[in-house]
Amino acid sequence: MRRPRLRMLSALMVALTAIVISAVGPATAEDAAAQRAPVWSGLDARTYPGPIPVPGTLIRQVPLDRSVTLPAAGRAYRILYATRDIRNRPAVSTAAVFLPKSPPPPGGYPVLAWAHGTVGLGDDCTPSAQPRIARDTRYLGHWLHQGYAIVATDYAGLGTPGLMSYLNGKAEAHAIVDSVIAAHQMGLPLARKWAIIGQSQGAGAALAGARDANRLSAGRALDYRGVVATGTPANIEQVIALAGPFPATLPPSLTAYVSYVWAGFSDARPDLRPLSVLTPEGRRIVALARTTCYQSLKPLVRGKSLRDIFSAPVSSIPGARAALAEYMGTPYSGFDRPIFLGQGLRDVDVPAPSALSLYAQMRAAGQPVELHVYPDQDHSGTVIASMRDSTPFLARIMR
Prior knowledge:
Elements: H1 2-23, E1 58-63, E2 73-84, E3 90-100, E4 109-115, H2 134-145, E5 149-153, H3 169-183, E6 190-199, H4 201-216, E7 223-230, H5 236-240, H6 252-268, H7 280-289, H8 294-301, H9 306-309, H10 320-328, E8 339-344, H11 352-364, E9 369-374, H12 381-385, H13 387-397
Parallel strand pairs: 4-5, 4-6, 6-7, 7-8, 8-9
Antiparallel strand pairs: 1-2, 2-3, 3-5
Helix pairs in contact: 3-4, 6-7, 6-8
């Protein structure tokens, strides 16, 4: 029975790969960013040795260097704050805080917590220490022009001790909510009202943060209103659980994502020995993924097949499917505020069935969700295209 099942899985992976490859289009805006030496703005927390206070505590704030701010921002800061990691242990994270150029309204600027997409796992990839890519500069600039302040977490492990738990909603939710709590200790004119916006990795993070926002911020005098998520990588763990030594070559972007997932999963669950199902080349690639930023990793994995990476099926790890679901599953129930899902039908990085299946799960669970589909947009293009719908959505829920 084992051989027919492997043949079936192999056929499935090849079919999925063919669908993905056939959809590959021109390079997106995300592909235009070149990695530079990080700019720490006088706040280098990579080896932070100090005590860690309760989650959400602001530890330090400094002005953000002009080379890594947003053109649409007035004042901008880099902060260090306390949070929790994947094991619920005390950790620290950094974030950027951007204020609009316009005067604050009565009660202060409403706040948007920005959850960023995939940049890599190495400290050099830290978003608050790098110039924003053109797409994010335009997107975040739009919200600043709308009068929102932006709190943009880096997630624990990016520019701070430890490894970022890639696609782990639990750690990302803590980082998002704690960044907003910390920002309200800066002495800035920030309103109690806040919402979450996120793209790709950040969309999954945003939804995890949205589900737990009120619980994690209880007693902090904050007023959470809702979430905007575009290109959400939902139910991806079900596909990764089928991976193995099959003759399927993925686009380099997807191979990079798998490498980041396996690096994070191996760090979170060493007891399952996830590296044991990798080839020597696969272990080399996952080791590279721990330190190499996304744009640098893609050419290094170009042309690699699943057979090059995996020596045995992921399913040969006892309890692998359940462990992957616990590590990176996207929540589809338990929400108490409105949800906006945006998805491009030409998305290759996170194909449409991912977000569409999540929408179906949310509807079946009776969640307050609305779906916006963009037939002509890819993974990156959806971010900008969605603004025509997400702008009135946020205006409505933030009244």
